[in-house]
Design brief:
The protein is mainly beta. The protein contains two helices and eleven strands, in the order αββββββαβββββ.
């Protein structure tokens, strides 16, 4: 009887091991929270944040997961950082109290509350975005989520891109409405190494 129990435990061990959560730390050099917003009803202006940090985890068997992302708001760039003969460059204006108010709110954060799966990989994540001291729920959908091995470090790595939308006015950012659009489209490119 003891022998049969031992065999059963050995056979079940790989299943138990595969049910463990996989934890990843975001690679700041390959993670780019980006956005697009309508400008004067004419074009979609794009920008990104160059500094971010965070982690994510998922359990393929239990179909659970979590995401935490912190973005340095002062790292915003839209390709317009030189003032020239204008009062201010666009990137500096976006850092001001009219928009991200980086002096008072140096970070914005996303923390998940629920992860949805398609097969054994996450398909979307629901959570709370905190911007300008206001917290609102948003959903990020993974257009791509893949895992493999980093060819250089030989570590397990997952990455992809997540998209979502929110209204900036919901967070109190109302400057230049409606000339500058209210709806912000997010596109977060990310990669992370397994801890």
């Amino acid at each position: 009887m003891k022998k049969l129990l031992a065999i059963a435990l050995v056979a079940a061990f790989p299943l138990l091991a595969s049910a463990a959560p996989e934890n990843y730390t975001l690679d700041p050099y390959h993670t780019y929270p980006g956005f697009a917003i309508e400008h004067w009803g004419l074009s979609q202006m794009h920008g990104q944040f160059d500094k971010s940090s965070g982690k994510f985890s998922f359990d393929r068997a239990a179909k659970t997961g979590s995401v935490e992302l912190t973005i340095a708001t002062a790292s915003i760039t839209t390709g317009d950082g030189v003032k020239g003969n204008r009062p201010t460059a666009r990137d500096d204006h976006l850092r001001s109290g009219d928009f991200f108010n980086v002096a008072e709110f140096p970070t914005m954060t996303f923390k998940s509350t629920k992860t949805n799966f398609s097969g054994d990989l996450p398909s979307s994540v629901e959570g709370n975005l905190t911007l300008l001291g206001v917290t609102k729920p948003i959903t990020l959908t993974f257009e791509r989520f893949k895992c493999g091995q980093n060819a250089f470090t030989k570590k397990d790595r997952c990455g992809g891109n997540a998209v979502g939308k929110f209204k900036r006015s919901d967070f109190g950012m109302k400057y230049a409405l409606p000339a500058v659009g209210d709806e912000v489209a997010l596109n977060i490119e990310f990669e992370g190494d397994k801890d």
